[in-house]
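Thread: "does anyone have the structure for this chain?"

Original post by V.I.:
We have the sequence but no experimental structure in hand. Need at least a predicted one for the grant figures.
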Amino acid sequence: MSIELWVSFAVACFVLVSIPGPTVLLVVSYALGRGRQTAIATVPGVVLGDFTAMTVSLLGAGAIIAASATLFTVLKIVGALYLVWLGIGLWREGGKMTAVAAEPSEKALGKMFWNSWLVTALNPKGIVFFIAFVPQFVDQSQPVLLQFAVLEGTFLFFAGLNVLLWALLAGKLRQQFQKPGLIKVIKRLGGSFLVGAGLLTAMVQRA
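Reply from O.Q.:
Generated one for you, tokens below.
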């Protein structure tokens, strides 16, 4: 792969991951409600979710999903319902405080990790995007698998860095507000964002 082609892909990745989607909303909601320590779990979860979606897409399953209206719809609805369920759960927590300075429990971190992975991996728009976008940067005259590895690594780097910055920023803002009333508003705002992201995901149409 030429350096020019790689730079073009890297720039495209930077621009694309900078646009907030359901994954970013989930990470921000966790950080606002429970502190920036949530990045410990959500960032690896997002990276693994993107890795799963990219790998599945590039291996060909994404092409089947993109071609099948039924499979696309099923995946879309499952992902949308999951986001709505997470949003309702965050809304119902109300003003319950979670210590900012304390380390989250392993159970809490595990739950955040798997939620982040599932929301990212189940994003049908992402799967279709990967199979339509990534191959455009592959030089057919060179070894394909090695190029896919480079492209995946590049995208995952920017995706991970993006959600890390969002989590740290949201967590820092959260530390400025310690009153239960404000925490309640923040959590309900985050929950509303997740529900909205779920509804938007449900309305995604196949290209």
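V.I.: this helps a lot. The radius of gyration is 18 Å.
O.Q.: and Confidence is low (pLDDT under 50) at residues 97-102.
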